[in-house]
Amino acid sequence: MRRYETIFIVRPNIAEDEIDAVINKTSSIIEGDGGIIIRIDKWGLKKLAYLIKKESQGYYVYLDYAGVPASVSEIERIFRIDDKVLKYLTIKLADSCDPEAIKEELASAEAAQTLAEDEVKEEASPAEAAKTTTEDEAKEDESPSETSGISAEDEAKEEEESPSEEKQAD
């Protein structure tokens, strides 16, 4: 089994469910031949560098998978037939790969991601409590000039103007 990555561009006027149908069809071809989908990334709608089939935008999809060369040939044949796909590119990443090792990698990466998300949630809750406490303390520490509507800058300007008026009177 070999490891591949395929990037394909779908027409921008295609609905989300039709894009999912193209992805599902591709995934079923790979899995039907005994392959494994490692990662599917929908990069979304992006501007193309040049017109492709009279389109200036396209919906990018990235597939990382392990499979046999026959499944790659079938996927590319389907992409050539399907008018929804503007362009595609498949690259062989490795000549041989162990599907069991890939499954273990995926499981450990998923576990690490959920652990990281839990840590972020735990760190966010004390930070939010500290932020609200700091805001409350700041409201209590307001000086009388700030509550009366006169800013500190205005008070400083008034003090500077007062001595200059006395000098002009002399």
Task: Explain how this protein is built.
The protein has 170 residues and is of the alpha+beta class. It has a domain at 2-97: Ribosomal protein S6/Translation elongation factor EF1B (Alpha-Beta Plaits), CATH 3.30.70.60. 55% of the residues lie in helices and 29% in strands. It contains five helices and four strands, in the order βαββαβααα. It has helices spanning 16-32, 69-81, 99-140, 144-147, 152-169; strands spanning 2-10, 36-52, 55-67, 85-94. It has a four-stranded antiparallel β-sheet with strand order 2-3-1-4. β2 and β3 (55-67) form a beta hairpin. The protein is flat and about 55 Å long. The model is unreliable at 143-147 (pLDDT under 50).
Shape: flat
The helix/strand class is alpha+beta
Show unreliable segments: 143-147
Report the order of strands and helices.
Answer: EHEEHEHHH
Number of helices: 5
CATH superfamily of one domain: Ribosomal protein S6/Translation elongation factor EF1B
Number of strands: 4
Report how far apart the termini are: 98 Å
Averaging pLDDT over every residue, what do you get?
Answer: 81
Largest sheet: 4 strands, antiparallel
CATH topology (fold) name of one domain: Alpha-Beta Plaits
User: For this structure, what is the CATH class of one domain?
Assistant: Alpha Beta
Rg for CA atoms:
31 Å
Oligomeric composition of the shown chains: single chain
Q: Which strands sit side by side, in order, in the main sheet?
A: 2-3-1-4
State which percent range the strand residues make up.
25-35%
CATH architecture of one domain: 2-Layer Sandwich
Query: Percent of residues in helical segments?
Result: 55-70%
